[in-house]
Write a structure and sequence with these properties.
Distance between the termini: 57 Å
Number of strands: 13
CATH architecture of the largest domain: Alpha-Beta Barrel
Strand content: 15-25%
Radius of gyration: 21 Å
CATH class of the largest domain: Alpha Beta
Number of helices: 11
Largest sheet: 8 strands, parallel
Helix content: 25-40%
CATH superfamily of the largest domain: Glycoside hydrolase/deacetylase
Number of domains: 2
Bound molecules: zinc ion
Length: 338
């Protein structure tokens, strides 16, 4: 009799552990093949999704999908949806009234600048900012002060604390332990990370002018830079978002359109703290999390400490980048959900 109960208890515990692992987030896709750009419409009533990638892992098919209303992404199996493959122009037209496609179009309109093309601020009505921290290749360890300070400062008002991390492929390779630390912070519901693609190699020349530097360096393979980073994210159990940050914030018009052709939204910054730019309400703040720019991190910590009272009254918050961009483009008069 006792044994029966113990067995039952074990079964329940086993099921619970599977469920909690599932809810902890992203699986690791360790054997990805045929990773490719693929566009289409996927629907599972009542939600429409835009398909942006297709791949196989251990013989199973998967899509990377975007919710065009909320800019949230997910990996899922095609069999769960009714699917219609479409050309990029067709699917962009289909979802043209959605915040996602509107944000892509805005980024394309702001594509001429050499630095800071794309979306560079969220809703000006927000009192607070969206925090983005870049993880460019670096031999220094992750600047953990960023995370411990926001968790501490926002403990009573926002949990998990939202922030976006722009991650390069090389950084993921260099810093497996730091990556595990971040994933644990996320699994413990301390922080909620939006993962931004920051290119794979993040090449930079110390001598060339900006117009020929970073991803504009001769010999750059943009397909590799975008898709290999996504594959590395999936391998490491990170969920790619629809955002892309140019290394050095440097691009030209042609490059912006190449990125939007991947279904990605270039995200700039109107407040690169280490460069002395002051954040405004709704700013997309840029600091470096890779240990290379401690000045910017100091300024950020000073900034949030100066807001302690407003934070406690929920008058100054950190915003989820997806929500900030989404809210800016939400048009209440649109009757369709596309
Ligand atoms: Zn960078």
């Amino acid at each position: 009799m006792k044994l029966k109960y113990i067995l039952k208890l074990f079964t329940i515990l086993f099921i619970l552990s599977i469920l909690s692992n599932k809810s902890k987030g992203q699986a690791n896709y360790l054997k990805i093949t045929n990773y490719k750009v693929y566009y289409g419409w996927a629907t599972h009533y009542p939600q429409d999704w835009m398909i942006i990638r297709q791949f196989e892992n251990e013989g199973k098919n998967y899509f990377l999908l975007v919710n065009p209303q909320t800019l949230e992404t997910r990996i899922d199996e095609p069999s769960f949806y009714k699917v219609k493959p479409m050309a990029l122009t067709e699917v962009r037209d289909f979802f043209k009234n959605s915040p996602y496609i509107k944000a892509i179009k805005k980024a394309e309109r702001h594509s001429v600048n050499t630095q800071d093309a794309g979306i560079e601020n969220g809703m000006p009505k927000q009192t607070g900012i969206s925090l983005t921290a870049d993880l460019c290749p670096s031999h220094r360890p992750l600047d953990k002060r960023i995370f411990t300070s926001i968790v501490q400062e926002f403990e009573q008002v926002e949990k998990p604390v939202p922030l976006a991390l722009s991650v390069s492929g090389v950084w993921m390779k260099q810093h497996p332990d730091d990556l595990e630390w971040l994933k644990k912070m996320q699994a413990d519901h301390q922080i909620n990370i939006t993962w931004i693609n920051h290119s794979y190699n993040h090449r930079v020349s110390p001598t060339l002018p900006l117009k020929k530097n970073f991803l504009l360096l001769p010999g750059t393979d943009i397909n590799f830079e975008v898709l290999e980073t996504e594959k590395a994210m999936l391998k490491n159990g990170l969920l790619p978002s629809v955002f892309f940050r140019f290394p050095g914030l440097v691009s030209d018009q042609q490059l912006v359109f190449k990125i939007t052709d991947f279904g990605l939204i270039p995200v700039g910054s109107d407040a690169w703290l280490a460069k002395g730019q002051k954040p405004q309400a709704g700013s997309i703040v840029l600091i470096h999390g890779n240990g290379n720019e401690p000045v910017g991190v100091n300024d950020f910590i000073k900034l949030i400490h100066s807001k302690t009272k407003a934070i406690a009254k929920k008058e100054w918050l950190l915003y989820d980048l997806r929500e900030s961009v989404d809210k800016e483009f939400e048009n209440k008069s649109d009757s369709t959900n596309r």
